Amino acid sequence: MSEVLSQDEIEQLLSAISFDFRDERFESMENFESFLVKRQTRPEKYYGRYQDGVPVCRFFTSKKGESILADIERKNAEQGMGNVEIPNTKIKLINYSFCPTCNKIFSFTELVNYYANPKPDPRFNNRTHQFRQDTRMYCSDCGTYFLPALVISDGTPKNEMQFLCRVQTADAIERFFMEKGMKVLTGKNENLMRRNGLRAIRNDIILRRLEPRQTLISNLLQYTPRI
User: Fold this and answer.
1) Helix (H) or strand (E) holding 91
2) Suppose 106 and one of 50, 70, 97, 198 were both cysteines; which one would form an S-S bond, judging by CB atoms 3.0 to 4.6 Å apart?
3) DSSP characters for 158-218?
4) Cα(first)–Cα(last) distance of the chain, in Å?
5) pTM score
6) What is the pLDDT of residues 136-161, one digit of tens each?
7) Main-chain phi, psi angles of 96, to 5 degrees
8) For residues 126 and 73, what is the distance between their CA atoms, to the nearest angstrom?
9) Closest by alpha carbon to 3, among 174, 128, 116?
10) Over the stretch 150-190, which tens digit does the pLDDT of each residue have?
């Protein structure tokens, strides 16, 4: 991701990414829905740096997973953010985020606010690197770091993966394509646009090419306005 963009600029740009399923290369919406709920036999490695010893939120191995998820959904609804529904599908994306030490739950809004201003960690060269690479959530009540999850539900929870904030999602996607010798999103100057005085990014991602990264596709969807 270009270093010339500030954190605020990245947030503004990515909030304006447009997504149209017709531009993607899955055979049908049903096929795409099946892809999202199918649990990977070989889960992706966790994204981010400095995660050794950091506990991970896991819905399917938690005895209280259903009640915790319901509390988070309720809190998201009260705050008017999160619980993202994918149009023309039964799919809902829900952040599964609670402190494994003190059991405090965190709403989507609380996650977004923290990742926009994370607890400073001197191991990162600068704040920009921490915004993009520190995928841990911090519980200010007990001082625990943990990795939140994203639950994929079609009325019943079917899948889970790592939760990433908007900037971390874009950064990981750009790194994925960079390894293939391709530039996407903010990596290409021609994708940075202004329309009617507003900033925007042209979404040049073909989701089919991201198929090995189910985590990135799912996180991208929760930050992408529907058209």
Assistant:
1) none
2) 97
3) EEEEE---HHHHHHHHHHHHHTTT---GGGSGGGEEEETTEEEE-----GGGGTT-HHHHH
4) 25
5) 0.87
6) 999 999 999 999 999 999 999 999 99
7) -110, 95
8) 34
9) 128
10) 999 999 999 999 999 988 998 999 999 999 999 988 888 88
